[in-house]
DNA sequence: TACTTTGGTTCGTGCCACGAACTTTACTGG
DNA sequence: CCAGTAAAGTTCGTGGCACGAACCAAAGTA
């Protein structure tokens, strides 16, 4: 109650702003946010489907389709596991790495504009607070 | 460059966590995030389609469909404007208001958990910084 | 060798959102 | 008063996204 009408709701609003800007940046790189997310997850390290499912918070069919579409664009690739013949690992193609890195850099450069109204000191504080968010998402 | 690998990217990650939690809360109220967003925008004040298009960052067809689906669920309603016979205004039904308020409260209650790891003082600081985000989104 | 579990895919459904084309009404200028 | 243009929304077709249910094949186990 002391939260008043809403820290939570303000957070939602903020996340919408971020998502909108992010989607715009992704679009500039000819990516959807979902594909961008997949690409960045796989860019520096191969991942199994199950792992990705976990990391991206998707059910299996959703992920399967996402990988399909992203693979069709030549950004990622399924490779068979020699450990387990039914499993496959998703890796990034050279093109995918390139695009992923460019996107990453662009996001770092353009997205913080959202907080352009904040003095540098405040931004630093914010940065630190936000950085502390748990890497392991609460499902 | 002093941002290191990424304030921007951390923000994106944060926004994903928020969106995921938010989607979960919306689902608990039998809503999609898009419908929830529409509902909350209209809940306390009628809005024209153009205005909504602006506020939600959607093109006209997308909004039209969203209103269709939400109207079909009895949460909002199109009413004709007497000013302009081609325009219509979207208002919330009583059910919509009820659902919207419940959602709003639930979001306020459950979403800040994401920052459960922060001491109260830090959370307060964060709250203040976040609250300062411009209401007018940068298109 | 049978039984169960697990990794992924396919299928059908529904939401979401876009551009293009269209209809209706409002607003001009002559 | 009657064009012609502009604006508000809708419809249509397309495509991405993501879910549950059903399925197949390989792996593990009794």
From TrEMBL, chains A, B:
Q: Which part of the chain is the HTH marR-type domain? A: 1-135
Q: What SMART domains would the database entry show?
A: HTH_MARR
Which domain of life does this protein belong to? Bacteria
- PANTHER family in the record, alphabetically? TRANSCRIPTIONAL REGULATOR, MARR FAMILY, TRANSCRIPTIONAL REGULATORY PROTEIN
Protein's recorded name: MarR family winged helix-turn-helix transcriptional regulator
Source organism per entry reads Actinoplanes sandaracinus
